[in-house]
Amino acid sequence: MHRSAIVCLAIVTAANAQTIDFETQPDGSTPVDNQQLPLDAPYAVGFNGGTLHVLLGFDVDGDGVVETPAVFEATGSDPITAFDAFGADGPAPAFAEQLGQWFLRSESALNNSAPVGILVAQYDQPVPGCAGEIWDIDGPEQWEIRGYRAGETDPVVTVLSPAGGFNGEPWVFTLADPTVGFSRLEIEHIGTRPNNQLGLAFNNFIASETVPGPTILTTQPLGEIRNAEGTETVTVYWSVPVTLTEDDVTVVTDDGLDLPVSIDVTGSGTQATTIIFRGPPGGSGGGPNDPLLNNAYRITIGGVARDASNNVLIDGDNDGIAGGDAVFTIAHRCLADMAQPAGIFDLADVLMFVESFNSNCE
C-alpha cells in the first residue's frame, strides 16, 4: 500500500455547473508550484443568475476559524508531494486528465508533520449542494465532509468517505441541502494515518451543484419468476459502465429472516453486472451455484459502486443525486403456486388452476 498525502477533491462536471479546477488562480492567472492561495481571495462562479464567491483555507486547530492558506500543487514529481501513487502526485493513468495539472493542497504533505487541519469552503450565500473528489484514499485514511447552514454549529448533512481503496483514483462526494442550503463546507480527516503520511488535496470543485450518478435501467429477470428451475443469476443493466465488487452488493432473503446469500459478481466496468447466487441462504457459499427457488431475495447495491469513467457514485435511489443504495427484490414462485399466500400449495392453488383451465387459460 503506498502512502497518501493530500486527498484531492476532483470534481466531475455537472450540467450547467461551473467547476473550480484550480488550473488558474482567482484572478485567472496560472499558479506557481507551492504558491499559497490568499485567505482573502475568493473564487467567483455563476449562480442563480448572479455570482457566488467561495473562500478556501484550513482551520488547523479546530476552533472554527481559518488560519492557514491552501497551497497550489503541480501534478508530477516535486520535492513536496501530496500523494504517492503512480509516482509523486501521480494519478492512475485512466484518471490523469481528470486530475489535470494543478490541485489545491494543505500545508501538510508527505514530507512534513504539520497538522492537516480542516479544509473550509465559506460561501457568501447558501447553496443547495456541491460535489468534489478525494484522491488516493488509502487505509487507514477516512474523510468526513460536512455542510453547515448559516449561523449553525451542527452540520445539516454529513458524508463519510470509504476507509481506503482508491489507489491514485478520486473518490467523488456530493452533498445536498435543497430546502435551505448550506453556507460552509468542511472536510476533515477522521482516520488514523499520521500527519507525516497525510495531507489533503482539493481539485475540480463544483461549489453550488450536486452531480448525478449512474442509475439502473432494468434487471433480468425482473420482479417475479415463474418457472420450474428458478434462477441462478440476476443481471443489472446500468445507464453507463459501473465499477463494483462483491463488497458493494448484499443479498438476503426477503422473508423477515434476512438470511445472507453468498454471491459472486461479474461484469465490473461494464453496463451489465451479473450477480451469481452461490450456496443456499444462510450457508457459507463457495460451492455450486444455488438457484433462487420458491423464495424471494432482496438485493442492495451500494458501497462504492461507481461510474467506471469518473468514479461518481451510483444514484441508487434515483433522486438525481449521486449516492444512495439501489434496493430491489426478485422472487421465484413454483408454476403450481397460483394463488395467495405465495409459497404454500393448497386448495386455493388447485381451484385457480381448474378455473384457468376451464376458461381456456383466460
Oligomer: single chain
Strand and helix order:
EEEEEEEHEEEEEEEEEEEEEEEEEEH
Radius of gyration (CA) equals 25 Å
Strand content: 35-45%
> How far do the termini sit from each other?
64 Å
* Model regions low in confidence, pLDDT < 50 over at least 5 residues: 1-16
| Biggest β-sheet strands, sense, barrel | 6 strands, antiparallel
Number of helices: 2
The pLDDT mean sits at: 87
Judged by helices, strands and strand pairing, the structural class is: mainly beta
Number of strands: 25
Strand sequence of the main sheet, in spatial order?
3-4-9-14-11-12
Shape: elongated
Helix proportion: under 10%
What is the gist of this entry?
The chain is mainly beta and 362 residues long.
Itemize the secondary structure elements and their pairings.
Layout: E1 6-7, E2 19-20, E3 43-47, E4 50-59, E5 71-74, E6 84-85, E7 87-88, H1 96-99, E8 102-105, E9 118-127, E10 129-135, E11 143-148, E12 157-160, E13 170-176, E14 182-189, E15 199-202, E16 205-206, E17 216-220, E18 224-226, E19 233-243, E20 249-253, E21 263-266, E22 270-277, E23 296-301, E24 306-307, E25 326-333, H2 347-358
Parallel strand pairs: 1-15, 18-25
Antiparallel strand pairs: 2-16, 3-4, 4-9, 5-8, 6-7, 8-15, 9-14, 10-13, 11-12, 11-14, 17-19, 19-22, 19-24, 20-23, 21-22, 23-25
